[in-house]
Amino acid sequence: GENVEQHPSTLSVQEGDSAVIKCTYSDSASNYFPWYKQELGKRPQLIIDIRSNVGEKKDQRIAVTLNKTAKHFSLHITETQPEDSAVYFCAASLYNNNDMRFGAGTRLTVKP
Amino acid sequence: DGGITQSPKYLFRKEGQNVTLSCEQNLNHDAMYWYRQDPGQGLRLIYYSQIVNDFQKGDIAEGYSVSREKKESFPLTVTSAQKNPTAFYLCASSIDRTNTQYFGPGTRLTVL
Protein backbone atom coordinates (compact mmCIF):
# COMPACT_ATOMS: atom_id res chain seq x y z
CA GLY A 1 0.00 0.00 0.00
CA GLU A 2 0.85 3.65 -0.13
CA ASN A 3 3.45 5.05 2.28
CA VAL A 4 3.94 8.79 2.74
CA GLU A 5 6.98 10.32 4.39
CA GLN A 6 7.11 13.96 5.41
CA HIS A 7 10.09 16.19 6.27
CA PRO A 8 11.02 18.03 8.34
CA SER A 9 9.07 17.11 11.46
CA THR A 10 9.60 20.61 12.86
CA LEU A 11 10.41 23.85 11.09
CA SER A 12 11.06 27.27 12.55
CA VAL A 13 11.27 30.37 10.38
CA GLN A 14 11.36 34.09 10.88
CA GLU A 15 8.30 36.08 9.92
CA GLY A 16 8.51 37.06 6.27
CA ASP A 17 10.73 34.14 5.30
CA SER A 18 9.61 31.23 3.16
CA ALA A 19 8.87 27.72 4.44
CA VAL A 20 9.08 24.50 2.46
CA ILE A 21 7.74 21.13 3.54
CA LYS A 22 8.45 18.02 1.48
CA CYS A 23 6.65 14.70 1.13
CA THR A 24 7.51 11.54 -0.73
CA TYR A 25 5.12 8.75 -1.63
CA SER A 26 5.66 5.15 -2.65
CA ASP A 27 2.78 4.25 -4.98
CA SER A 28 3.32 5.67 -8.46
CA ALA A 29 -0.42 5.26 -9.15
CA SER A 30 -1.36 7.88 -6.53
CA ASN A 31 -2.94 10.85 -8.24
CA TYR A 32 -4.35 13.16 -5.58
CA PHE A 33 -2.22 15.10 -3.06
CA PRO A 34 -3.90 17.35 -0.49
CA TRP A 35 -2.30 19.43 2.24
CA TYR A 36 -4.03 20.04 5.57
CA LYS A 37 -3.32 22.65 8.22
CA GLN A 38 -4.11 21.88 11.85
CA GLU A 39 -3.87 24.72 14.33
CA LEU A 40 -3.39 23.85 17.98
CA GLY A 41 -6.53 22.26 19.38
CA LYS A 42 -8.43 22.61 16.12
CA ARG A 43 -9.52 20.34 13.30
CA PRO A 44 -7.41 19.74 10.16
CA GLN A 45 -8.48 21.93 7.26
CA LEU A 46 -7.66 21.54 3.60
CA ILE A 47 -5.48 24.43 2.41
CA ILE A 48 -4.48 23.30 -1.07
CA ASP A 49 -4.44 20.18 -3.19
CA ILE A 50 -2.99 19.03 -6.48
CA ARG A 51 -3.83 16.27 -8.91
CA SER A 52 -1.36 14.27 -10.92
CA ASN A 53 -2.06 16.02 -14.22
CA VAL A 54 -0.75 19.30 -12.81
CA GLY A 55 2.84 20.13 -11.84
CA GLU A 56 2.21 23.22 -9.73
CA LYS A 57 -0.68 25.03 -8.13
CA LYS A 58 -0.76 28.39 -6.36
CA ASP A 59 -3.18 30.07 -4.02
CA GLN A 60 -1.93 33.45 -2.81
CA ARG A 61 1.04 32.77 -0.51
CA ILE A 62 0.72 29.01 -0.75
CA ALA A 63 1.93 26.78 -3.57
CA VAL A 64 2.30 23.07 -4.09
CA THR A 65 4.62 21.40 -6.58
CA LEU A 66 4.49 17.80 -7.75
CA ASN A 67 7.25 15.72 -9.31
CA LYS A 68 5.65 12.46 -10.41
CA THR A 69 8.88 10.98 -11.70
CA ALA A 70 10.59 11.38 -8.36
CA LYS A 71 7.35 10.73 -6.43
CA HIS A 72 7.57 13.78 -4.26
CA PHE A 73 5.54 16.91 -3.68
CA SER A 74 6.19 20.03 -1.66
CA LEU A 75 4.30 22.80 0.09
CA HIS A 76 5.73 26.30 -0.23
CA ILE A 77 4.59 29.16 1.98
CA THR A 78 5.98 32.59 1.14
CA GLU A 79 6.01 35.71 3.31
CA THR A 80 5.19 33.66 6.39
CA GLN A 81 3.12 35.19 9.17
CA PRO A 82 2.71 34.14 12.82
CA GLU A 83 -0.78 32.85 12.02
CA ASP A 84 0.81 30.31 9.68
CA SER A 85 2.12 28.53 12.78
CA ALA A 86 0.44 25.10 12.85
CA VAL A 87 0.98 21.45 12.02
CA TYR A 88 0.84 20.72 8.31
CA PHE A 89 -0.02 17.27 6.92
CA CYS A 90 0.46 15.99 3.44
CA ALA A 91 -1.46 13.05 2.03
CA ALA A 92 -1.61 10.91 -1.09
CA SER A 93 -4.40 8.81 -2.51
CA LEU A 94 -5.59 6.92 -5.56
CA TYR A 95 -8.52 9.35 -5.76
CA ASN A 96 -10.52 7.52 -3.07
CA ASN A 97 -10.48 8.90 0.44
CA ASN A 98 -10.38 5.41 1.90
CA ASP A 99 -7.04 4.91 0.16
CA MET A 100 -5.61 8.17 1.48
CA ARG A 101 -2.40 7.97 3.49
CA PHE A 102 -1.07 10.84 5.57
CA GLY A 103 2.40 12.03 6.39
CA ALA A 104 3.42 12.33 10.03
CA GLY A 105 3.08 16.11 10.02
CA THR A 106 5.37 19.14 10.23
CA ARG A 107 5.10 21.58 13.09
CA LEU A 108 5.78 25.02 11.63
CA THR A 109 6.60 27.89 13.95
CA VAL A 110 6.80 31.40 12.56
CA LYS A 111 8.66 33.73 14.90
CA PRO A 112 7.59 37.38 14.88
CA ASP B 1 -16.39 25.33 11.40
CA GLY B 2 -19.94 23.95 11.62
CA GLY B 3 -21.36 21.04 9.68
CA ILE B 4 -19.58 18.15 11.36
CA THR B 5 -19.49 17.80 15.11
CA GLN B 6 -17.97 15.38 17.58
CA SER B 7 -18.73 14.82 21.22
CA PRO B 8 -17.49 14.80 23.81
CA LYS B 9 -14.34 16.91 23.40
CA TYR B 10 -12.57 15.05 26.19
CA LEU B 11 -13.32 11.53 27.40
CA PHE B 12 -11.81 9.50 30.17
CA ARG B 13 -12.21 5.76 30.37
CA LYS B 14 -11.19 3.11 32.80
CA GLU B 15 -9.43 0.05 31.49
CA GLY B 16 -11.86 -2.69 30.52
CA GLN B 17 -14.68 -0.31 29.62
CA ASN B 18 -16.20 0.26 26.21
CA VAL B 19 -16.82 3.85 25.19
CA THR B 20 -18.65 5.41 22.25
CA LEU B 21 -17.58 8.58 20.45
CA SER B 22 -20.21 10.55 18.60
CA CYS B 23 -19.89 12.02 15.10
CA GLU B 24 -22.72 13.93 13.43
CA GLN B 25 -22.85 15.85 10.17
CA ASN B 26 -25.55 17.98 8.57
CA LEU B 27 -23.76 18.37 5.24
CA ASN B 28 -25.74 15.60 3.53
CA HIS B 29 -22.48 13.76 2.90
CA ASP B 30 -22.61 10.11 1.92
CA ALA B 31 -19.11 9.17 3.10
CA MET B 32 -17.82 9.30 6.66
CA TYR B 33 -14.51 8.31 8.22
CA TRP B 34 -12.83 7.75 11.57
CA TYR B 35 -9.15 8.48 12.06
CA ARG B 36 -6.81 8.11 14.98
CA GLN B 37 -4.07 10.70 15.55
CA ASP B 38 -1.05 9.93 17.71
CA PRO B 39 1.90 12.26 18.39
CA GLY B 40 4.50 12.10 15.64
CA GLN B 41 2.30 10.01 13.37
CA GLY B 42 -0.01 10.79 10.52
CA LEU B 43 -3.73 10.18 10.65
CA ARG B 44 -4.57 6.51 10.46
CA LEU B 45 -7.89 5.26 9.12
CA ILE B 46 -9.93 3.15 11.53
CA TYR B 47 -13.22 2.66 9.66
CA TYR B 48 -15.03 4.28 6.79
CA SER B 49 -18.55 4.27 5.43
CA GLN B 50 -19.44 5.20 1.87
CA ILE B 51 -23.19 4.96 2.35
CA VAL B 52 -25.82 4.32 5.00
CA ASN B 53 -25.85 0.77 6.40
CA ASP B 54 -22.43 0.04 4.94
CA PHE B 55 -18.98 0.37 6.48
CA GLN B 56 -15.53 -1.07 5.91
CA LYS B 57 -12.43 -1.61 8.02
CA GLY B 58 -9.52 0.72 7.60
CA ASP B 59 -5.88 0.09 8.47
CA ILE B 60 -6.28 -0.17 12.26
CA ALA B 61 -9.82 -1.48 12.89
CA GLU B 62 -8.91 -4.00 15.59
CA GLY B 63 -10.56 -3.13 18.90
CA TYR B 64 -13.02 -0.69 17.32
CA SER B 65 -16.56 -0.97 15.98
CA VAL B 66 -18.90 1.39 14.13
CA SER B 67 -22.45 1.64 12.87
CA ARG B 68 -24.09 3.73 10.15
CA GLU B 69 -27.82 3.52 10.71
CA LYS B 70 -28.42 7.12 9.68
CA LYS B 71 -26.73 9.20 7.00
CA GLU B 72 -25.81 11.95 9.43
CA SER B 73 -24.37 9.77 12.20
CA PHE B 74 -21.30 7.53 12.40
CA PRO B 75 -20.52 6.60 16.03
CA LEU B 76 -17.28 4.86 16.94
CA THR B 77 -17.05 2.40 19.84
CA VAL B 78 -13.66 1.83 21.40
CA THR B 79 -13.83 -1.59 22.98
CA SER B 80 -11.80 -3.10 25.78
CA ALA B 81 -10.00 -5.15 23.11
CA GLN B 82 -8.18 -2.01 21.91
CA LYS B 83 -4.78 -2.30 23.59
CA ASN B 84 -3.71 1.32 23.44
CA PRO B 85 -6.79 3.50 23.06
CA THR B 86 -5.41 6.77 24.40
CA ALA B 87 -5.33 9.06 21.37
CA PHE B 88 -7.02 11.93 19.55
CA TYR B 89 -9.90 10.69 17.38
CA LEU B 90 -11.03 12.60 14.31
CA CYS B 91 -14.18 12.05 12.33
CA ALA B 92 -14.50 13.30 8.75
CA SER B 93 -17.08 13.34 6.00
CA SER B 94 -17.15 13.97 2.27
CA ILE B 95 -19.80 14.23 -0.42
CA ASP B 96 -18.57 10.92 -1.76
CA ARG B 97 -15.42 8.89 -1.50
CA THR B 98 -13.54 11.00 -4.06
CA ASN B 99 -14.19 14.51 -2.76
CA THR B 100 -12.65 16.72 -0.12
CA GLN B 101 -12.90 15.49 3.45
CA TYR B 102 -14.11 17.86 6.16
CA PHE B 103 -12.98 17.08 9.66
CA GLY B 104 -14.75 17.35 12.98
CA PRO B 105 -13.11 19.03 16.01
CA GLY B 106 -11.95 15.73 17.48
CA THR B 107 -12.31 13.80 20.73
CA ARG B 108 -9.36 13.26 23.02
CA LEU B 109 -9.71 9.88 24.73
CA THR B 110 -7.62 9.06 27.77
CA VAL B 111 -7.58 5.67 29.42
CA LEU B 112 -6.92 5.87 33.14
Overall average residue pLDDT of chain A: 94
Quaternary form: heterodimer
How many strands appear in the DSSP assignment of chain A? Answer: 11
Q: What is the CA-CA span between the terminal residues of chain B?
A: 31 Å
Largest β sheet strand count, sense and barrel closure of chain A: 6 strands, mixed
Number of helices of chain A: 0
Structural class by secondary-structure content of chain B: mainly beta
Give the ordered list of helices and strands of chain A: EEEEEEEEEEE
Helical fraction of chain B equals under 10%
Main β-sheet description of chain B: 7 strands, mixed
Which residue ranges of chain A are poorly predicted, with pLDDT under 50 across at least 5 consecutive positions?
none
Structural class of the secondary elements of chain A? mainly beta
Q: What Rg of chain A, in angstroms, do the CA atoms define?
A: 13 Å
Residue share in helix of chain A = under 10%
Helical element count of chain B? 0
* Global geometry of chain A: globular
Could you explain how this protein is built, in words?
The complex is a heterodimer of chains A (112) and B (112). Chain A is mainly β and 112 residues long. Helices cover 0% and strands 54% of the residues of chain A. Chain A has no helices and 11 strands. Chain A has strands at residues 4-7, 10-14, 19-25, 32-38, 45-51, 56-59, 62-67, 72-77, 86-92, 101-102, 106-111. In chain A, a hairpin with a 4-residue loop joins strand 7 and strand 8 (72-77). Chain B is an all-beta fold and 112 residues long. Helices cover 0% and strands 49% of the residues of chain B. Chain B has no helices and 11 strands. In chain B, strands 2, 4, 5, 6, 9, 10 and 11 form a 7-stranded mixed beta sheet that branches. A 4-stranded antiparallel beta sheet of chain B has the order 1-3-8-7, with no helix packed on it. The radius of gyration of chain B is 13 Å and the shape is globular. The N and C termini of chain B lie far apart (31 Å). The relative contact order of chain B is 0.33. The model of chain B has no long low-confidence stretch (mean pLDDT 93).
